[in-house]
Amino acid sequence: MEKLYVIKIGGNIIDNEEALSKFLNDYASLQAKKILIHGGGKVATDISAGLGIEAKMVDGRRITDAETLKIVTMVYGGLINKRVVAALQARNCNAIGLTGADANIIKSSKRPVKNGIDYGFVGDVENVEAQTLATLINAGLYPIIAPLSHDGQGNMLNVNADTMASVTSVALSKIFEVHLIYCFELKGVLENFEDKNSVIAEITPSKYLDLKEKGIISKGMIPKLDNSFDAIQAGVTTVRICHADDLKKIINEQAVQGTVLKK
Amino acid sequence: MEKLYVIKIGGNIIDNEEALSKFLNDYASLQAKKILIHGGGKVATDISAGLGIEAKMVDGRRITDAETLKIVTMVYGGLINKRVVAALQARNCNAIGLTGADANIIKSSKRPVKNGIDYGFVGDVENVEAQTLATLINAGLYPIIAPLSHDGQGNMLNVNADTMASVTSVALSKIFEVHLIYCFELKGVLENFEDKNSVIAEITPSKYLDLKEKGIISKGMIPKLDNSFDAIQAGVTTVRICHADDLKKIINEQAVQGTVLKK
């Protein structure tokens, strides 16, 4: 099977013009089939504030009421997605911006109210049309996916970008040899959060359990790692968590960088 | 050559939920290859006002400064485009939302300052990648295009939706038998603007000159008609200007509706 890189770029990189520009240089220079999934960043919060809409968070997740859904659809699907696409086009990378609604690539269902928490217009992914994505990729296009989906009944839904990267990777692993790379502002999963160089080079499922028990894995990292191990179990070849600056080195296999997750 | 409908829907229909919903029902039911190009509507102005950014207009065209460009990228490329895509997906139409930057389908250059007027980030279309659009269409997808383009240097540009419909139709006329239909809130080109039923059934280039000389064609209609006659000269088979409600009748060729433009 042909290699396909699914690369997720976090909101903190999106918010930093210089870091984003460097990342996009490296992304554009990667000569392989690839998909980019981007997070949201702070812009949605800033625009909401400008319009007098207050962002509501529960457990680090945005509560998406109807007004917030409009904002994230505009900001993630319009402003950020098109900024990335135009920047990649300028770098001779034939990017095509998509949400899950476009070509019906990622369909979700509205998350049910649980423990009294109504997340609002937040989606849990139900289906990824891997064949449609493969058609676009095989036509020489590079999909750039915003963390938005739809419910098939006319509503857009906000989706966690990490989860989106993971389920998309799993679906594509039936067609490609998929390498999922989470790029963010840290060098990898850290042994000690105060020491930004204390990268754990490799994590297996048993080591993961151990690290969680010892409280070494930080709370914010757990959903990302849960997603990653699910993806590996379901057919993704490798998952790596690394600094956005290290993408090029990783792809050129020049050096061990970041944290690799293994079966 | 196979028939392709390029349908442009005006901002006044986009702004009217009921009219839009009816139009999308008819659009989804149209069993043919098709592209939809949508205008902007008032939402961008409302959002700008909410953020304290004042819309500047010259000759009915929005002056697009950097802040306004952000707003129209969000609103046209995000909010409106994805609302239409999700609504069509709910109607079993496999819509894919695009701007000119996506897959590089429509590239523009920033309009030069002329007669002391700097339109800002407004693009004049330079190139349409008809083959890429044909690849998407032949894959069973229905492109929904927002009135936005890019300059190939990383900048998005605001483009007039009527012009976009016309130049896209011309480019696609090398591959398909193209029928361009402008759908808006009037029944066609009117003989007397006060009488909404005074539709001129057919306009030829010589009749057009005559109508302009007599001052019968309203100012707002002239760019649309100029674009249309350019499109016909350049290979588009028919251009029709009609009410959004009449799309279905026209396509089923049940009755003469709206204004037809002929060589």
Any chance you could write out the topology, listing elements then pairs?
The structure is a homodimer of 263-residue chains.
Chain A: E1 3-9, H1 11-14, H2 17-29, E2 33-38, H3 43-50, E3 56-58, E4 61-63, H4 66-90, E5 95-98, E6 106-110, E7 123-128, H5 130-138, E8 142-145, E9 148-150, E10 156-158, H6 161-172, E11 177-184, E12 202-203, H7 205-213, H8 222-233, E13 238-243, H9 247-251, E14 259-261
Parallel strand pairs in A: 1-2, 1-11, 2-8, 5-8, 11-13, 12-14
Antiparallel strand pairs in A: 3-4, 6-7, 9-10, 13-14
Helix pairs in contact in A: 3-4, 6-8
- Unreliable stretches covering 5 or more consecutive residues of chain A: none
Characterize the largest beta sheet of chain A: strand count, sense, and whether it forms a barrel.
8 strands, mixed
Instruction: Please state the average pLDDT score of chain A.
Output: 92
Contiguous helical run count of chain A:
9
What is the alpha-carbon Rg of chain A in Å? 18 Å
What distance separates the N and C termini of chain A?
20 Å
The strand count of chain A comes to: 14
Order of helices and strands of chain A: EHHEHEEHEEEHEEEHEEHHEHE
**For the largest beta sheet of chain A, what order do the strands appear in spatially?**
5-8-2-1-11-13-14-12
> What is the share of helical residues of chain A?
25-40%
Task: Name the overall outline of chain A.
Answer: globular
Structural class by sheet pairing and helices of chain A = alpha/beta
The pair of chains with the biggest contact is: A-B, 41 and 41 residues
- The quaternary state of the protein chains shown equals homodimer
Residues in β-strands, percent of chain A: 15-25%
